[in-house]
Amino acid sequence: MSPHLKYGEECQQIIDVCRRLYNRNMLAAADGNISMRVEEGVLITPSGKAKAFIEASDICLVTLKNEILYGIPSSERLMHLAVYNSNAAAVAVVHAHPPTAIAWTVAFPESKELPNTCLSEIILAAGKIPIVDYARPGTNDMGEVLKPYLEDHKILILSRHGGLTWGDSLEEATMGMERLEHSAEILYRAIQMADLSHLPEDEVRALYEMRQKIGNKTL
């Protein structure tokens, strides 16, 4: 039975996010995948279909042990399952291909994180945005390289591949993807204009104190 018959609202939320990210140029063709935790396991977008044009009946269902219950799910589902199995607080995962964030990892392959001391928004909204080592798409390695980061970070850049965000709601995970690309775009424009400048050390400390009070929540 198609999961949309039981999880119609959740399936529609996934479709709405696909279109939202497509309209922001963070999904192209069949790129990316979006998932939500439900009673039987995980709802996830299908493999090989343009995400901007999927329908509720296309949404697939897999268990947390990677057993396929319905449809032809994304070949990158192991990455999503790694998030859910590593963190009980994860309710939704968004994987998209934000162009500027990806370009950062191509231009600066030694970078371990997006420069966070340039923008107060990165610190307050995310704390830090790490860059995860490259892993071949569709392999188990994609999930393995994420695990060291999942406890403390809800926004990640996948080197030479894309972005991955998770949250206690699909809205939080989606906002994380928007925050990622918006921050990367600002930094890119700064480099075009001149170069990156950084906040004073005392201001950075103050911002991190504010972030600590906010907690591990994406703004």
**Cα Rg:** 17 Å
> Order of strands in the sheet with the most strands?
4-3-2-1-5-8-7-6
For the record, the CATH class is Alpha Beta
How much of the polypeptide forms β-strand, as a percent range?
5-15%
Number of beta-strand segments: 8
Number of domains: 1
The end-to-end span amounts to 37 Å
Our count of helices gives 7
Average of pLDDT: 96
The CATH superfamily is: Class II aldolase/adducin N-terminal domain
Q: Return residue spans where pLDDT drops below 50 for at least 5 consecutive residues.
A: none
Largest sheet: 8 strands, mixed
In CATH, the architecture is 3-Layer(aba) Sandwich
Structural class: alpha+beta
Keywords, separated by commas or semicolons:
single chain, 219 residues, alpha+beta, L-fuculose-1-phosphate Aldolase, 8-stranded mixed beta sheet, globular
